[in-house]
TrEMBL record:
<keyword id="KW-0997">Cell inner membrane</keyword>
<dbReference type="InterPro" id="IPR000515">
    <property type="entry name" value="MetI-like"/>
</dbReference>
<feature type="transmembrane region" description="Helical">
    <location>
        <begin position="224"/>
        <end position="244"/>
    </location>
</feature>
<keyword id="KW-1003">Cell membrane</keyword>
<keyword id="KW-0472">Membrane</keyword>
<keyword id="KW-1133">Transmembrane helix</keyword>
<feature type="transmembrane region" description="Helical">
    <location>
        <begin position="115"/>
        <end position="140"/>
    </location>
</feature>
<feature type="domain" description="ABC transmembrane type-1">
    <location>
        <begin position="54"/>
        <end position="241"/>
    </location>
</feature>
<comment type="similarity">
    <text>Belongs to the binding-protein-dependent transport system permease family.</text>
</comment>
<feature type="transmembrane region" description="Helical">
    <location>
        <begin position="89"/>
        <end position="109"/>
    </location>
</feature>
<dbReference type="GO" id="GO:0005886">
    <property type="term" value="C:plasma membrane"/>
</dbReference>
<protein>
    <submittedName>
        <fullName>ABC transporter permease subunit</fullName>
    </submittedName>
</protein>
<keyword id="KW-0812">Transmembrane</keyword>
<dbReference type="GO" id="GO:0055085">
    <property type="term" value="P:transmembrane transport"/>
</dbReference>
<keyword id="KW-0813">Transport</keyword>
<feature type="transmembrane region" description="Helical">
    <location>
        <begin position="182"/>
        <end position="204"/>
    </location>
</feature>
<dbReference type="InterPro" id="IPR035906">
    <property type="entry name" value="MetI-like_sf"/>
</dbReference>
Length: 251
């Protein structure tokens, strides 16, 4: 079985790493002289429009994760403890965005966003509200699996019997026990935000994916370098999640 496992890992590595190698090769190739150059990677910070798009997408990722966790974690805990009859309804609402194309979401929210733009201004950060909706299905599954793995009712009753309020029970007792699920939901949400193109493009905002497409029309290596950097960042997040989860299992 061990040779088979090694063979499968080699095939897995070739299947996923070869495209990354090809992207890295193209992003460092000097198309004029035929040598190697790091100009495309320097452009990630030298190009003002691209650097601004990177900062915008990272800010959107932070705001989206914060809003998603603040909305979803207390809601799911409260439903499991006090209103289990509403769990199916909450699950339906959270998974509903998977069945609705992003184009329909943009068209449906257009009138709502007129008020958002009027109140908050024409900032790309207002996409946070849409992105929270888009990441709900993935975040819900991660948090649901984490909550299902613990005895939530017993933990809550023990904390309450010792005099803890609901806020203390959630923050000091329940959240540490679902840390892996929270990290999983956060990292998946970050990956979704950094790769989302349709909503930002149709809304007219210059996020990282939109800017990558724009740059790709005139500067292929820089566009590929930005895409590769985004993929590497996503893989790094997944690696951190895997290490945290493995360490928690050993503990």
């Amino acid at each position: 079985m061990k040779p088979l496992r090694i063979l499968l890992w080699l095939l897995f590595g070739v299947f996923f790493l070869f495209p990354l190698y090809a992207m890295g090769d193209f992003a460092t190739r000097d198309l004029q002289s035929g040598g190697r150059t790091m100009a495309a990677w320097v452009n990630l910070f030298a190009d003002d429009a691209l650097f601004a798009a990177i900062l915008t997408s990272l800010s959107l990722a932070v705001l989206t994760v914060t809003a998603m966790l603040a909305l979803l974690v207390p809601t799911m805990i409260w439903v499991r403890l006090r209103a289990p009859w509403a769990s199916r309804f909450i699950e339906f609402l959270c998974l509903l965005p998977l069945t609705i194309p992003a184009l329909v979401v943009v068209v449906g929210l257009r009138n709502v966003y007129l008020w958002v733009t009027y109140l908050l201004g024409e900032s790309a950060l207002t996409l946070t509200f849409v992105y929270v909706v888009l990441v709900l299905p993935f975040a819900y599954r991660a948090l649901d699996a984490a909550l299902s793995a613990i005895d939530l009712q017993t933990l809550a009753e023990a904390a309450r019997s010792l005099g803890a309020g609901w806020a203390s029970t959630i923050v000091a007792v329940i959240v540490p026990n679902i840390r892996a699920g929270i990290l999983s939901a956060a990292f998946i949400s970050i990956a979704v935000v950094l790769g989302e193109y349709t909503v930002a493009s149709l809304s007219g905002f210059q996020t990282l994916p939109v800017q990558i497409v724009e740059i790709g029309k005139s500067d292929g290596p820089t566009s590929v370098a930005a895409s590769l950097a985004t993929l590497i960042f996503g893989f790094a997040l997944l690696l951190v999640l895997s290490m945290v989860t493995r360490r928690r299992r050993r503990a």
